[in-house]
Design a protein that fits this description.
The protein is α+β, with helices and mostly antiparallel strands and 426 residues long. It is built from nine helices and 16 strands. The strands form four sheets. The chain has a seven-stranded antiparallel sheet with strand order 2-6-7-1-5-4-3. A five-stranded mixed sheet has the order 10-9-8-11-12, with helices on both faces. The longest helix is centred in the middle third of the chain and has 35 residues, at 249-283.
């Protein structure tokens, strides 16, 4: 590590909160108020002329809304300001091509969350080896699981401190994510080799050097049987509910049990992704991946009434498998982990990598005979091997030829990298 240059890094640390029923109700009310504040702000934005959409006018609008609507008062003023800043940042990301335009947040499909933008309001204290105490505005002092040392008390300073937090609710309850800012030495360039990565469904990650990373099912046989039983019971109880009738407590309980099992599967998937990406980031200096358009890959094949789609059920199953692998999340993890270790992640164009022979460069759809077998149809070559490793070698070959994707004005364009000598991927 080079100690001449220091860089600021900001990362999050999640911990589970131990809320009482009354505290949980207060936190739920704050989350609903924050979502309502976002929707009101979005409605105000759509009604106002473009020259009136300023930060000062929007700040005055949300202040007036907090006075006119009683239940918005449960949201702390700093949290309301955080909603405003997040909304304006969402529009900036849209204008710069990094995201779609912001929209209304639905009650059921939106993750419940509340921002605590000021770190000094938290007043964190460690009271036990496993527990700490944190102050939540308008909720009170709450315990949380102490699973990692935080820069509090004598450990805190100008170069290592907590700048804020966010409360997030999932199937297991409420969690707190601390925003920790620290100053670290800028890492030296990673001296590891280059590697290409091919992602898939049957083989999640295949490397150009022949290494593969695979995983089993995220739920055990008993857990999958339990999940199927709960889903069938929920469907049966839903059939007996009359239109407009409130959902029964038994059905709510079944939904909670289903969400708990799905959350368990997601936690196991996240753990596998973290462990795998950490190993890759520590081993290789340059990681080359395909620039995949995942939203286009998981579009439905239903078609229209005039032109119905074909193999709709098979395509739906493939879409679920692709979404379950979370390729985009894997690339995101690789990006920040390689950066922390002095490496880099490079994206290359995706078309043709699975059909090209990495030995001779001959490209034809018939080269890939099956999911796992690749046989070159070039009479002068005839190379055969694993199809996933062949695709990973082609990904690395594109980088060595200088065909890297450089983002420009929110779009990806192909440009040859400077001072990169063409080399074979073999």
């Amino acid at each position: 590590m080079s100690h001449n240059t220091l860089v600021k890094r900001q990362f999050g640390h999640h911990a589970r909160l131990a809320l009482s029923p009354a505290e949980m109700l207060k936190t739920d009310d704050q989350a609903h108020a924050a979502r309502t504040m976002w929707n009101l702000l979005h409605a105000w934005w759509q009604m106002m002329p473009k020259d009136k959409r300023t930060l000062a006018n929007s700040d005055a609008a949300i202040r007036q809304a907090r006075e006119d609507i009683d239940f918005l008062a449960v949201l702390p003023a700093q949290a309301a300001q955080a909603v405003l800043k997040t909304y304006f940042r969402a529009w900036k990301n849209c204008w710069e091509g990094r995201a779609d335009a912001p929209n209304f947040k639905g009650r059921l499909r939106t993750v419940m969350s509340v921002d605590i933008p000021q770190g000094r309001d938290l007043n964190i204290v460690r009271v036990h080896r496993r527990w700490g105490m944190v102050n939540l505005p308008k909720v009170g002092r709450v315990r949380f699981r102490w699973t990692k040392d935080l820069p509090v008390g004598k450990r805190a300073g100008a170069e290592n401190r907590i700048t804020g937090a966010r409360l997030i609710k999932d199937a297991l309850g409420w969690h707190i994510a601390f925003r920790v800012q620290t100053v670290e030495a800028k890492p030296d360039p990673h001296q590891g080799p280059d590697v290409g990565i091919d992602v898939g469904v049957t083989v999640p990650i295949a490397l150009s050097d022949g290494e593969t990373y695979e995983h089993g099912e995220w739920l055990t046989g008993k857990e999958k049987a339990r999940l199927l039983y709960l889903e069938q019971r929920a469907a049966q109880r839903k059939q007996h509910r009359k239109p407009g009738e409130r959902t029964s407590r038994r059905l709510h309980r079944t939904y909670d049990q289903i969400a708990g099992l799905r959350a368990k599967a997601k936690r196991r998937a996240l753990d596998w992704q973290h462990q795998t990406t950490t190993v890759i980031a520590r081993t290789y200096g340059t990681v080359v991946v395909e620039a995949l358009s995942i939203p286009n890959m998981v579009k439905s094949a239903r078609g229209t009434i005039e032109e119905p789609g074909k193999n709709v059920a098979q395509k739906a199953g493939l879409n679920r498998s692709i979404s379950g692998e979370a390729w985009g999340r894997t690339v995101t993890m690789l990006t920040y982990k390689t950066a922390q270790l002095g490496g880099t992640v490079v994206k290359v164009p995706a078309p043709g990598t699975s059909r090209r022979c990495s030995a001779c460069g001959f490209t034809t759809p018939g080269n890939r005979e099956s999911q796992a077998v690749f046989v070159c149809k070039n009479p002068d070559c005839g190379w055969s091997g694993n199809a996933d490793h062949n695709a990973a070698r082609n990904v690395l070959h594109l980088y060595r030829m200088g065909l890297a994707l450089i983002p420009a004005a929110g779009r990806a364009v192909v440009r040859r990298a400077k001072r990169v000598k063409p080399a074979a991927a073999r």
